[in-house]
Design brief:
two-stranded antiparallel sheet; about 50% helix; 2 strands; mainly alpha
Length: about 150
């Protein structure tokens, strides 16, 4: 499940992806536009900067911006940076495997095998979806929602 940290991080990245070339945004602006607590967003953006997804600049013309084009930022990478492995349970993780205390046969465990399939399906989608696609999808759904609502 996506945590609030992951959700807020994605919302902030969408916000930054919508900026014009060379533009930056301050944490306060991003937080206000997306209804995210500023203090929490400070931590999230710092993590994204430390993983190389964002860059920051100090001063009156400073703020945050994407470190590379949105078409080169993968959503799976973002979620892993903020929330950790994509697997729904630790024993199904490729990068952070941890056997369950109550399991005698991790290799044949039906729960682990099923959750591994879930992990693979999630990873297939998120590791092939760019931030640019994520932003475009958001805009398409907004238009579709408006059409459905009769606006």
């Amino acid at each position: 499940m996506l945590t609030k940290k992951g959700k807020y991080g994605l919302k902030a990245l969408v916000d930054l992806a919508r900026l014009g070339p060379g533009e930056t945004a301050f944490v306060t602006e991003i937080a206000t536009r997306n209804n995210i607590p500023k203090k929490f967003l400070d931590t999230i953006l710092l993590e994204l900067r430390n993983t190389g997804i964002l860059r920051s600049k100090k001063g009156p013309n400073g703020g945050y911006s994407l470190s590379k084009p949105a078409s080169e930022i993968m959503i799976g990478q973002v979620i892993r940076a903020l929330d950790g492995p994509l697997a729904p349970i630790r024993c199904a993780s490729r990068t952070a495997f941890e056997a369950c205390d109550d399991c005698n046969d991790p290799v044949g465990c039906q729960v682990r095998l099923s959750m591994t399939e879930v992990r693979d399906a999630i990873a297939t989608i998120l590791d092939n979806m760019t931030l640019a696609q994520f932003v475009a999808k958001d805009r398409k759904e907004t238009v579709a929602d408006a059409l459905i609502a009769g606006e």
